[in-house]
Amino acid sequence: MAFIELRNVSKGFGPPGPNRVEVLRDINLSVRESEFVAIVGYSGTGKSTLINMMAGLLKPDAGSALLKGAPIKGPERDLGLIFQNYSLLPWLTVYGNVALAVNAAFKNWSRKERDQQVRRFVDLVNLTPALEKRPGELSGGMRQRVAVARTLAMDPEVLLMDEPLGALDALTRGELQKEIAAIWEKQRKAAVLITNSVDEALLLADRITPLNLGPGATLGPEFAVDLPRPRSAAALNKNPTFTRLRGEITDYLIEIGRAGKASTNDKIVPLPDVRPLDPSERASRTWVS
Ligand SMILES: Nc1ncnc2c1ncn2[C@@H]1O[C@H](COP(=O)(O)OP(=O)(O)OP(=O)(O)O)[C@@H](O)[C@H]1O
Ligand SMILES: [Mg+2]
User: Fold this and answer.
1) Whose CA is nearest to atom 24 of ligand 1?
2) 118-122, 166-170, 177-181, 239-243: lowest mean pLDDT where?
3) What pLDDT, on the 0 to 100 scale, is given for residue 289?
4) N or C, which end of the chain is more exposed by having fewer CB within 10 Å?
5) Best mutation site among 43, 47, 50 for ligand 1, i.e. most ligand atoms within 8 A of its Cβ?
6) More confident residue, 280 or 55
C-alpha cells in the first residue's frame, strides 16, 4: 500500500487563465513504507514543486497528495522535509536550531528527554564538537548536516529530501551520502530524494524516476534499483547492474534534454530581415519638419 502518494497531480504558477504556467502535469508517484524513491531531472523542471506538494507546502491544482490514504492538508511533523538551501536560523547555535524542531515536535516530553534527543541527532551527523557554533561559523557541509539532524530529530514518518547535497563539494557530498545511507538503513522510513546526480540516486534509492522537461512536466519511466545493501560507491563502480542502470538512466536524461532543445527551437519566431540603412542613402535624405 502507498504510504505517501501523488495521484494525478497537476500544478502551475501564476494567475488563473492563459498566463498561468503549468509546471507539472498528471504526476503519479507512490512510495511504500520503508521504500526509498529518487527523482532525477534538470534544473527548473519542477522537482521542488513536486516534493513541496508531498511536504504539504504547496497544494495541487488538480489531483491529490495523500499520506496513508488521507489528503495532506499542510505541513506537519510526519512530513520531514530537508530543504534545498539549509534554511537554518542564523542567530541560533547548532543545538538551538535542532532544539527548536525537537521542542515543536515533542511538546509533552520533559526538558531532559528533549535535550537528549537534540544531542543524539547532532551526534549522529558528527557535529557534537560544533554544538555551540552558529551557522555563520560552519562550512556548507556542516550546515547541511545540521539541516539533516534537525529534520531527523523530529522523527518524521516520511523523509523528503530536496537536493540536500547539491551545494556541496564532491568529497563532502560523498561523506554525507554515506551518512544518509547509514541513517536510512537503520530507520527504513518512506523516503523521497530529489537529486541531479544519477550516481547519488543509485547509491541510495530502491527506485529512480526521471522528471521529464516541462512546461507540464510528467514523470518518466521507473528504473528499479536492484542492488544489494548496504551499498558503497567503491563497490558499486565494479557492479555490472550499477553500470547498466547508470547508462540507461543517463541516456534517458540526455535524450529528453535533446528532445527538449529541439522543441524549444521549434518555438523560435523568425525575426524580420532588418538591415541598417546604407549611410549614403541616409545622407541623401532630407528632413521633413
Ligand atoms: N512560487 C512560484 N511562483 C512562480 N513560479 C514558480 C514558483 N515556484 C516555482 N516556480 C517556477 O516553476 C518552475 C519549476 O520550479 P522548481 O523550483 O520546482 O524547479 P526545480 O526542478 O526544483 O529546479 P532546481 O533544480 O533548479 O531546484 C520554474 O520555472 C520556476 O520558475
Ligand atoms: Mg529545486
Assistant:
1) 43
2) 166-170
3) 47
4) C
5) 47
6) 55
238 alpha carbon – ligand 2 mean position (Å): 31
DSSP per-residue codes, the chain: -EEEEEEEEEEEESSSSTTPEEEEEEEEEEEETT-EEEEE--TTSSHHHHHHHHTTSS--SEEEEEETTEE--S--TTEEEE-SS----TTS-HHHHHHHHHHHH-TTS-HHHHHHHHHHHHHHTT-GGGTT--GGGS-HHHHHHHHHHHHHHT--SEEEEESTTTTS-HHHHHHHHHHHHHHHHHH--EEEEEES-HHHHHHH-SEEEEBPPSSSB-B---EE----SS--HHHHTT-HHHHHHHHHHHHHHHHHHHHHHHHHHHTPPPPP---PPPHHHHHT-----
Q: 204-259: per-residue pLDDT in tens?
A: 999 999 999 989 999 999 999 999 999 999 999 999 999 999 999 999 999 999 98
Please work out whether the CB of residue 19 comes within 6 Å of at least one atom of ligand 1.
no
Q: pTM of the prediction? A: 0.88
Q: Which amino acid is residue 188, in one-letter code?
A: R
Cβ of 212 closer than 6 Å to ligand 1, yes or no, is: no
Ligand 1 center to 172 CA (angstroms): 26
Ligand 2 geometric centre to CA of 287 (Å): 57
